[in-house]
TrEMBL record:
<dbReference type="InterPro" id="IPR036514">
    <property type="entry name" value="SGNH_hydro_sf"/>
</dbReference>
<keyword id="KW-0378">Hydrolase</keyword>
<dbReference type="InterPro" id="IPR045136">
    <property type="entry name" value="Iah1-like"/>
</dbReference>
<dbReference type="InterPro" id="IPR013830">
    <property type="entry name" value="SGNH_hydro"/>
</dbReference>
<feature type="domain" description="SGNH hydrolase-type esterase">
    <location>
        <begin position="10"/>
        <end position="228"/>
    </location>
</feature>
<dbReference type="GO" id="GO:0016787">
    <property type="term" value="F:hydrolase activity"/>
</dbReference>
<dbReference type="Pfam" id="PF13472">
    <property type="entry name" value="Lipase_GDSL_2"/>
</dbReference>
<protein>
    <submittedName>
        <fullName>SGNH hydrolase-type esterase domain-containing protein</fullName>
    </submittedName>
</protein>
């Protein structure tokens, strides 16, 4: 029977689908795979345009129940919400109401197929939105208004925080906060407390995109720098199985280091015979 590698699955929308791309200088998925090489397979199950209702409908097609010889789901990283938070427009039907979004996420993390594997689950807040940029692009693409709004997107990120707080076994990865903190750090002179109604970067009420222009080039999807921020958040949660061990450079390998492989004894035996 072939050896199966345990899996780290990235389950989400276009933000995960695009995480494999290295053309911008940094690949989130590649960085993860490098970190866990020979121990886990990082499997990309990102689906552009999908919301949490779509995710629930396809979940049985993505994950198989545990089976002898089948890959075990050890880590599940979930990132949905950018599409759920879309505004209801005649030209777009991705929106999922906030309460249903929360219910869907709870159903995903508690789905019998998922829980049967007993994975460590990382629940990610969707990143912030640059509504100023999104508005320009959406109108240019024929929509009557912006398909997404800064404050609405922030509410969906807050919902993820609430769900993580209600499920102690779930690990929260606050991508929204991390990217916004980076944007504020690199936008000198901007203080959301002093902007109109406390409006954030990217909100038309503040009128300031600031460094979000670099972090969210089209207002929605992440740049290489944003993916690096994301990776820095996730990295500490992987590898506790071997971190700090005597031979952590090879502990946890699915197949042994060549120096420890059983065939070495066979080779030594044959060499002794030939001598």
């Amino acid at each position: 029977m072939a050896t199966s590698y345990p899996q780290i699955v990235l389950f989400g929308d276009s933000l995960f689908q695009a995480s494999v791309d290295a053309s911008t200088g940094f690949s989130f998925q590649s960085a993860l795979q490098t970190q866990v090489l020979r121990r886990f397979d990082v499997v990309n199950r990102g689906f552009s345009g999908y919301n949490t209702s779509n995710a629930l409908s396809i979940l049985p097609n993505i994950f198989a129940p545990p089976s002898l010889g089948g890959p075990a789901l050890k880590y599940l990283i979930i990132l949905f919400g950018a599409n759920d938070a879309a505004v209801q427009l005649p030209t777009n039907f991705q929106h999922v109401p906030l309460e249903r979004y929360k219910e869907n996420l709870v159903r995903i993390i508690n789905h019998p197929i998922v829980t049967a594997h007993k994975p460590k689950i990382l629940l990610v807040t969707p990143p912030p939105l640059d509504e100023i940029r999104v508005t320009v692009l959406d109108r240019a693409n024929g929509h009557p208004a912006a398909m997404r709004q800064t404050k609405r997107s922030a509410a969906y990120s807050e919902a993820v925080r609430q769900i993580a707080a209600q499920h102690p076994a779930i690990t929260l990865v606050d991508l929204h906060k991390a990217i916004m903190d980076r944007a504020l750090e690199k936008t000198p002179g901007f203080d959301p407390k002093k902007s109109k109604n406390g409006a954030a970067l990217g909100d038309p009420e503040s009128g300031v995109r600031g460094y979000l222009e670099q972090l969210l080039p089209d207002g929605l999807h992440m740049s290489a720098e944003s993916y690096q921020v994301f990776y820095d958040l996730v990295r500490p949660h992987l590898g506790s199985e071997w971190a700090g061990t005597k031979d952590e450079n090879k502990v946890g390998f699915v197949l042994p280091d060549w120096r420890d492989a059983p065939w070495l004894e066979e080779d030594d035996h044959l060499m002794g015979k030939s001598i």
